[in-house]
Amino acid sequence: MSKQQVSERRFIALSLTPIVILFLVFSVIPIAIGTVLMFFDYSPLSNSIPFAGFKHIQELFSDKMFFKSLGVTFTFVIVAIPANIVVTLLIAMGINKIHDGFWKNSFRTLFFLPAIAPLAGSAVIWTTMFNADSGVVNMAFKLLGLPSVNWLTDPSTALLSVIIMTLWADIGYNIVLFMAGLDSIPESLYEAAELDGASKWHVFWSISLPMLSRTMLFVFIMTSISYFQMFPQFQIMTKGGPLHETYVLALNIYDQAFSFMNMSYASAMAFMMLIIILILTLIQMRIGRSQWEH
Amino acid sequence: MRTKKWDLPYILLFAALLIGSLVMFVPYLWMVLTSFKSNSEILTSSNHLLPQEPTLSGYRKVLGEVPFFRWFLNSLSTSAIVTVGAMFSSALAGYIFAKFRFRGKRLLFVVILATMMVPFQIVMVPTYIIISKLNLVNDLSAIVIPYLVSAFGIFLAKQFIEAIPNELIEAARMDGASEFRTFWSLVLPQIKPALSALAIFSFMASWNNYLWPLIILNEESKMTVPLALVFFNGQNVVNYNVVMSAAVLIMIPVVVIFLIFQKQFIKGLTMTGFK
């Protein structure tokens, strides 16, 4: 080995070793433990970790609360993700049509502002806004002559309230991403469509939307992954209630692991969550890829 | 743009966006206004948005009766260390993955990337076990050490460093610069935009993180700001004005910082496409 090679080797080893160790200890090993912990009976208080086989997975399938939280999670995701995408795409297209630079920037900033706030803080603020007696939402309802609603304590509106808060808190990200995606569509395509006399609706379906498919796929995958794991607003605004109508999987896992100390059982649930997210991501990528080739 | 006139559809669009962005702003307005109300006013007068008898009692309580400054400092110091650490380790690893060849490089990189896809719920229990074996429960380093490396950061840095011409790096070596020196004074300045984006994301992720501190920090003196907010909200008798005053004190600095760095932030977001 030349002197140059020796110093290169040494540099790689010295720099990469601490980084790889941190990755091993706080990412790779936890993932490995996380996928096998459900086959053991782990308790923080006991020294032995007996093998449990498929016990926790069987428990899972007879646990009504698991299925309840799975259902709540899916309802949340199925409502919130499409709502998020439609709203953010519309707003992004709207802002992109504003020709005054100052207003364009101001609108983007105002819509983005909530996205930088701590989610926990936003959840606390929205809890008081949704308060049935003193919250601003019911104040506005009263002004409009509408009856007051027990937003967070009525089982039929609790999840909706959290969805509204979630959309407020993070539509900014997708608006910015869609705006960038729309900006990158060549103007010449629109000009050609105009010459052909295409309708606005037609332009949207045959130019904007297909040209956005890359951004769309990315936005869909990132939003799905993050919405499946949403936690602070559920824990803070409703604590999963009323009647477990907002008891999402993330909250169920947290409770099992750190309130009831059933860490192995929590891991079994977390593993199910991983599988669901993986399957959904793969499906989205498959659909997305076939659209690109198109 | 093709048409530059204020026709009716344009006015309607403008009005809709204006109303929409004002609605987006309502929670902030609500937060500030409520923070100047007394608790009894919040609970009794449900018809007034504006404080009828403005008071600073909420702020006095936040700043006087609880270690708010301590919590603020906890958040600030841990987030700052995480940011610097993640920037440095990401750039260094990114450089090695982009410009060096060694055995197992591809596999290592793929493993690092794959960790990004795993939900936090999978790793939170094992990481808790590891941290407690290291005796770091209720220690602020527990919310620092795991975040000193960032898979996303490495990916981002690698993308940018790959664009630096190899000749430039070779030239530095010819001049007798050490490997680390080449990295520090040649590579780092070249990827400033990526690093500033990464800095903003790391800082915000750390400052806003809720679930992990909630799990690992239980002592009052060790809390970070998001935990503090919830602490006020979770007391038996909720003092709404105290909660709101704390929220104002936590949100306002973030908003100000954002408004200052807005350009870099938006650029970073669109450049990377990640949160």
Automatic annotation (TrEMBL), chain A:
Q: How does it sit in the membrane?
A: Multi-pass membrane protein
The regions listed as transmembrane in this protein's record are 12-40, 70-95, 107-129, 158-182, 203-228, 263-283
List, alphabetically, the InterPro entries matched: ABC_transporter_permease (IPR051393), MetI-like (IPR000515), MetI-like_sf (IPR035906)
Q: Which residues form the signal peptide?
A: none
Q: Name one GO cellular component term.
A: plasma membrane
Answer yes or no on keyword Nucleotidyltransferase. no
Residue span, ABC transmembrane type-1 domain:
70-284
| UniProt name for this protein | Sugar ABC transporter permease
Specify the species.
Cohnella abietis
Automatic annotation (TrEMBL), chain B:
Q: Where in the cell is it found?
A: Cell membrane
Superkingdom field: Bacteria
Record-annotated ABC transmembrane type-1 domain positions: 72-261
Its placement in the membrane is given as: Multi-pass membrane protein
**From its record, what is one biological process in GO terms?**
transmembrane transport
One GO cellular component this record assigns the protein to is:
plasma membrane
Write out the entry's keywords from A to Z. Answer: Cell membrane, Membrane, Transmembrane, Transmembrane helix, Transport
Kindly indicate whether the keyword Iron belongs to this entry.
no
Supply the InterPro entries for this chain.
MetI-like, MetI-like_sf
What does the similarity note say? Belongs to the binding-protein-dependent transport system permease family.
In its UniProt entry, what is this protein called? ABC transporter permease
**Which organism is this entry from?**
Cohnella abietis
